[in-house]
Design brief:
The complex is a heterotrimer of chains A (about 300), B (about 280) and C (about 550). Chain A has helices spanning about 20-40, 50-60, 65-90, 95-130, 130-135, 145-150, 165-190, 195-220, 235-270, 280-310. Chain A is an all-alpha fold and about 300 residues long. Chain A folds into 2 domains: about 1-95, Helix Hairpins, CATH 1.10.287; about 95-310, Four Helix Bundle (Hemerythrin (Met), subunit A), CATH 1.20.120.80. In chain A, helix 7 (about 165-190) packs antiparallel against helix 8. By secondary structure, chain B is α/β, with parallel strands linked by helices. Chain B has 5 helices and 11 strands, in the order E-H-H-E-E-E-H-E-E-E-E-E-E-E-H-H. The longest helix of chain B is centred in the N-terminal third of the chain and has 34 residues, at about 25-60. In chain C, about 65% of the residues lie in helices and about 0% in strands. Chain C has helices at about 1-10, 20-25, 30-55, 75-115, 125-145, 170-175, 175-205, 220-250, 265-280, 285-295, 305-315, 335-345, 345-360, 370-395, 395-400, 405-435, 440-465, 480-510; strands spanning about 150, 155, 435-440, 515. In chain C, the strands form 2 sheets. Chain C has a two-stranded antiparallel ribbon with strand order 1-2. In chain C, strands 3-4 form a two-stranded antiparallel ribbon. Chain C is globular. The chains are: A mainly alpha (about 300), B alpha/beta (about 280), C mainly alpha (about 550). The complex binds heme-A (2 copies), dinuclear copper ion and copper (II) ion. One heme-A sits at the interface of chains C and B.
Amino acid sequence: MAAHAEVKHDYHLVDPSPWPFVASCFVFLMAVGGVVAMRGVLPASEDPGFWGHIVNTVLVKGKLPLFIIGAAGVVMSAAGWWLDVIKESRKGDHTPVVDIGLRYGMILFIASEVMFFAAWFWVFFELSIFHDVRANWVVPLWEGTDTAARWANWPPPNVETFDPFHLPLMNTLILLLSGTTVTWAHHALQQGDRRSAMWGLLITVLLGCAFTYVQFVLEYPHAGFKFGNNDEISTANLYGASFFMATGFHGVHVIIGTIFLAVCLIRLMAGQFTPKKHFGLEAAAWYWHFVDVVWLFLFTFVYVLPYLTMQE
Amino acid sequence: MVMSAAAPAFAGQPTDGAINFQAPATGSMRQIVDFHNFILPIIVVITLLVLALLAWVMIRYNRWTNPTPRKFTHNTLVEVIWTVVPVLILVVIAIRSFPILHAQERAPPAAVTIKVTASSWAWAYEYQDLGVTVNSNLLPEDQAVAQQRPYLLAVDNPIYVPVGENVQVLISSNDVIHSWTVPAFGVKQDAIQGRTNVGWFNVERAGTYYGQCSELCGINHAYMPIEVRAVPRAEFERWIVEQGGSLEPPAEAAAETAPAAAPAEAAPADAAPAQP
Amino acid sequence: MAADTVDAAHDHRPSIWDWKRWLYSTNHKDIGTMYIVFAIIAGVIGGAMSGVIRWELAEPGIQILHGLPWVDQTDPDAAKHAYNVLVTMHGLIMIFFMVMPAMIGGFGNWFVPLMIGAPDMAFPRMNNISFWLLPASFGLALISMFVPGNGTYPGFGGGWTLYPPLSTSDLHHGGASMDLLILSLHIAGASSILGAINFITTIFNMRAPGMTLHRMPLFVWSILVTVFLLLLALPVLAGALTMLLTDRNFGTQFFNPAGGGDPVMYQHLFWFFGHPEVYILILPGFGMISQIVSTFSRKPVFGYLGMAYAMVSIGFIGFIVWAHHMYTVGMGFDLEAYFIAATMIIAVPTGIKIFSWIATMWGGSMTFAVPMQWALGFIFLFTIGGVTGVVLANSGIDTAMHDTYYVVAHFHYVLSMGAVFTIFAGFYYWIPKMSGYRYNSFLGTLHFWVTFIGVNLIFFPQHFLGLQGMPRRHVDYAEGLAYWNHISTLGYWIAAVGVGIFMLVLIDLFAVKRRAGANPWGEGATTLEWTLSSPPPFHQFAELPVIKPDAHH
Ligand code: HEA
Ligand code: HEA
Ligand code: CUA
Ligand SMILES: [Cu+2]
């Protein structure tokens, strides 16, 4: 049973790897850097010497170097890590049992993502379903405001929601279509038709980019409500915040999914996927479908319903 | 403090070395104490049962008294018993428990309504119908010592309530969350900006009752005490007048408007009564 | 013993001085060891903080906080804030950096693969980032104590629950320390989620041939349930933390009433995570106690299936009781009545566990080795903590107890005696396996008794303080609360001596080097880890063991 014994199982005992440790160091830097950028970890120093200089260039509010170095390092470690995974897969380390493990892993990861979105929907539903209850117990503690009137409706007065049957509907169609194209790619690959698979994937990636373009470039700038606190109707701000956080996080997931699919496209073109073995592509497709389903919920509850109940 | 000399002797505050609740001063608190007197023996017996069973197996089934272990792993009867009996115990507890909650939640018509507003780190009290406003701050240590009043519990301006009458407190906050608490009354309600919570009590015994802020609210969380003096009606009215208030709207009228102000049945949260 | 020496000779175990062995590790046992070392360090730091808390509370008045090096000695507010910071960090450190790493990261990593007959975890490299994210997270939390938090006062002093508006208002916590803490918890959460994915995959996919789910040792079951709770509860916390972050820095008003938001909404999100979290802190302990009780009674676990599914149902019900932490926010009768009923139901499966442990010992042939002492102590003390939980579940009486020391007493009985006792039980049970050496039984027994007396003296009187109305998180208290506070602090000194004895145990263990052999516990120890040498080979089960149907747990 000692280590010199011949290994008689199919599990993958991974070689020692620098990435987890390196990535964690950069995560730490990125977190400190993020706080520096948002708040500044230390007040500006008056000390003209070396430390004062360091403090004033990297630790006071708004300074970005730490964050940038950290983020770049995280991206680099992630890339190095995934490249290692691909190498191991090509070496044949991903035996059938390991492959099943990867599937479990991906499903569970998606399950945790679902719970993350649950938090945002929780807030959104609480605000929208109980707005009239809120109108009753929110007392006008603030001079010159009429809180009850503000909460009388959801979305709050002064919020002009997007017309869901315009750009959002288009985005819905884009995502649904991309869901079919990615399935097309997958089936084509299973049939050994690499050309069609490539087309399917390429179209999916382009549709993903189109979605991002429509959402972030065409739609967001024209919102009839705001994210931050510069809105004079404060409840409108709340609609805006929950809208942008929920759809924004979804948008970020679309971008991640698009990158994931793009990597699969490159790997497909490099001939790394076979009709039998292509879990990377399947995982990307699962992820993509998950993003798709979240969107359907967003479309229904965050776009359509508030639009229907909007006050003129 | 004009009236401190007249303050009744009974004091609702912690007693050194005591091991139980403070003496209850309201019906609600008596209910709580009764419930505790009911549930405490139950949990003590359960704990002692576990202890006794542990002692028994340790004595009877150790390597020396029972060298050969038996190998059984199932016994349906005992498994059913230790599932069903706890369920029954819990049902009994619940039956005793719900009415207390019900009584706390359903504020009866109030003779006096006080709006309590917390801010960091003091309490403001408004007797809205009587036109009296009181700001209560911690009584500094030197003064507390000089006046022989309990430091950290005593305040500079205590509030007064009439004995034997229903008092409703409408609790809110100007900033972070605080919690208005008087242990002897069995009242604890969070003071949350943007909502109004309702508490009520009916003090049965004249006396001075102390409480403290019970939700972490920052640096001086330990330094925003509550002091309520329950006095006979006449004295209460004298105090109101002394504070510049008026008894114009008679207490009966206040009592009549109160039910309308009480939380509506349907509102899931303690709906804020619309303030007249 | 013979197998032992053969293994040692042929096992290509890197030297412990080889830094790459730890930093780059993909070995579940090495990673588990790092987790345990980390937990011990965090436990000592968190324990020292509770020492400062107790010392401060020994008498009325503020006596020692001025003495802390980073606290402005002339400003009483600085000391008061420092107290709040210490309480907050004590709670967070004990929960996130002591109990969780010890139980799940440490014992889980070491023994889940060994017990199911797997050569390692499913994702060995990801396992390592689960660990290394923790020092990053802990570092952020520690830094947060020394950068501006409240005005110029350093650190975040809003309690481990991080309630807004206290945690979001610029007036109270305008400094960077809250932001650092938020990101610290984000990272700790990510670490746990990755760990959860890893454990579930390992348990579902890597059981040895013949090891069906219903033949898994109960410790593995307990970890399985725990990591499911982690996987589903932590992302919700991540969402809530993100909202805190945007409320603080990007002008959203989720929890700001002035903007129409609602601080109570945060409390719902937090406790939706927070309550499952407390079961995360105890379930692995339940698993360890099952193994230990069975081993030292030389008798198989009583009611195995009932035990496993009791944990499953505790985990499930744990998700639907969260608002029992919020009875005083003004929820209304219906909601509170529901949460009373749901909460009390948990006593039933927990009772099944308590009684099944006793039934396991019934008819057994018990020996009282050190792990068994901790296990017996646990069963008794956890029951005390559990039944006070049932009292608290009743909203009517919780009105009087909420945010008093009664609650502090409750949760230290289930944590500082429940969870910590199981950790020590597990530690003494498995340290011969992990290190290859036996501990000194006398020191171990002494450690148990000193800790047992110490923690009871600390926390039993706190029930009295709570009933008398002493609110928690108060830096100072009225004269009328002096007596029991004094006793409680006395108890702390005894418990601190206990931690000192534990350090002696560790030193003795590695200094004296008594060889343990593959199975020091004899016939009662039936799980797979005892079939291996101590310590096990660097990579075990090159040939997978086969589990026969009649094998018992
Ligand atoms: C390991 C952690 C742990 C565990 C296991 C528990 C277990 C339980 N807890 Fe506890 N709890 C905490 C950690 C834990 N808790 C923490 C940290 C807090 C405070 C958080 C904060 O505010 O900072 C808290 C607070 C807390 C509150 C809120 C109090 C307040 O703030 O006002 C409540 C209220 O319902 C509660 C209830 C319970 C119940 C009913 C159980 C049950 O699971 C207990 C079940 C066990 C038993 C009952 C004993 C064994 C059973 C038998 C022998 C069978 C027979 C018994 C009966 C029939 C009764 N807990
Ligand atoms: C697991 C959790 C845990 C543990 C073990 C402890 C242990 C202790 N705690 Fe604490 N405590 C909390 C969790 C915990 N606590 C929480 C969540 C809060 C609430 C915070 C808040 O309000 O925000 C709190 C609050 C709290 C208060 C209330 C403060 C206040 O409200 O003002 C007090 C006061 O006495 C206190 C005291 C102590 C003491 C004396 C110990 C002693 O038992 C300490 C002695 C030390 C040990 C017994 C542990 C030693 C362990 C190791 C060395 C690790 C070993 C590891 C391996 C073997 C792998 N704690
Ligand atoms: Cu106000 Cu605590
Ligand atoms: Cu709970």
